Amino acid sequence: MSRAWKNRQQKDPFVQQARTDGYRARAAYKLRELADRDRLFDGVQRVVDLGAAPGSWSQVAREAVGGHGRVIALDVLEMAPVEGVTFLQGDFREDEVLAALEEALGGERVDLVLSDMAPNLSGIGPSDQARSVHLAELALAFARDWLDRSGRCVVKVFQGAGFDDLLAEFRQTFRTVKVRKPEASRAGSREVYLVGIGLR
Hints:
This protein is of the alpha/beta class. It has helices spanning 3-11, 13-21, 28-38, 56-65, 95-105, 125-146, 163-173, and strands spanning 46-50, 70-75, 85-89, 110-115, 147-158, 174-180, 191-199.
């Protein structure tokens, strides 16, 4: 880790707040802001969190749905247990892993699909961008298959090649679509979140 990165982390108010509040990452505040703005958790009982590690979004989701709701998290990386969250480790792009996720759902529809998935960055801009959009498309495809008609979907994507096509797909899929840049998202980052509400 570079000294510049460490210095930025130490000065970052969201990093400091995450430590105080017991969240595993500053990303928790991105989801909290999105949830407040778009009432993402209203009436929600079943949540799927794709690309969940280290678990801050699962923590927020668990708080929001309470003891009566269910959160299923998935990531290719290991994730320390979050109380009340079912975690599956594996690559979402593999049929076997997707089948395990669908089995965990037990045939029940989902109220909210979350995806903070991002590729391991290679430093080759066009390649990284293409992989980011591909992961977002996979999350959208899962949402199409498993969301309840009134369900919601939040997907991270980086602005660049393929973004406009993905946004068009969202608009074809959901009745309401928002493009959000939460305050906790670093100003220099090209990441935005697509929020879809209510299947068409």
